[in-house]
Amino acid sequence: MNFSEFKALLGADPWNRDPETLRARNAAPEFEQAAQEAEAFERKLQGAIDAPLPDSLVENLLQLDARDKPGRFPRWFAMAASVTLVAGISAMLWLQMRQPQDVQQYVQYHLAHDGEALLGRATGAADRTEVQRILAGFGVGAEPALVEQIRLIKICPTPDGRGAHMVVDMGSGPVHVIFMPETPVEDGEEFLFDGHLTHLLKLARGGAAVVGRADQPIGDIDRVLRNSLYPLQTKT
Q: What are phi and psi of 91, to 5 degrees?
């Protein structure tokens, strides 16, 4: 594994601990340094996104965005700007995610950024506890029928905040499932790009984009997602 390939893996999953990655990490000082920097960045990013922001700050950012860049997803720009103020790291998010105007463009940018790298990482079953922990952060749980098919899960930015990017084994091969808990979608809408077919699915909370090969049947996952993702009960 060369240094560029190693950095691509870190970009997809900074906490990667598979044997091949660990061997590469120990191969030379620059590999270890890159891994430490990726982990530090991930911690800063998580802390920045989770940090509460004053209501007045968010309101001002939304007003600025509405004047300067009218579009469908003003909260995306507010999030990026707020991350800059909290941790000074939105420049990387901006370059990675560019500036999506709708769900279709967001999915294209997202897959171009780390789609192939995540497929390369999804070589075994994901940790079930980790799957439920990440989903619980969005107020949902998953039935075993879905959890057992998940090969990888990670938190990712979405047009309206945060969500979960999953690689799911559907028998015909892996598909990407991008869960967007705060983003409404047109149920059943489909679009093609770069040999990929994307199917949008409306869920009880938000929506999901299912992305597979153009020749890959992905309709079955509708039933799996609808039946397997359920809202967690909040204590009163």
A: -60, -40
Structure tokens, 8: 């691509």
Per-residue pLDDT of the chain (236 residues; tens, 9 = 90+): 787 777 767 766 777 777 888 888 888 888 888 888 877 776 666 655 555 555 554 455 445 444 444 455 545 444 544 444 443 444 344 434 445 678 998 898 888 878 888 888 888 899 999 999 999 999 999 999 999 999 999 998 888 888 999 999 988 889 999 999 999 999 999 999 888 899 999 998 899 999 998 888 877 788 889 999 999 875 44
Q: Does residue 193 sit in helix, strand or coil?
A: strand
Amino acid in the structure at residue 123: T
Question: What gap in Å lies between CA 234 and CA 196, rounded to an integer?
Answer: 37
DSSP classification of residue 219? T
State both tokens at 190. 């489909």
**DSSP conformational letter for 100:** -
**CA 175 – CA 217 distance, rounded (Å):** 10
Q: What is the CB neighbour count within 10 angstroms for residue 26?
A: 11
- Distance between CA atoms of 38 and 35, rounded to whole angstroms? 5
Side-chain-facing half-sphere of 105: CA atoms under 13 Å:
11
Distance CA 67, CA 115 (A): 33
Residues in the chain: 236
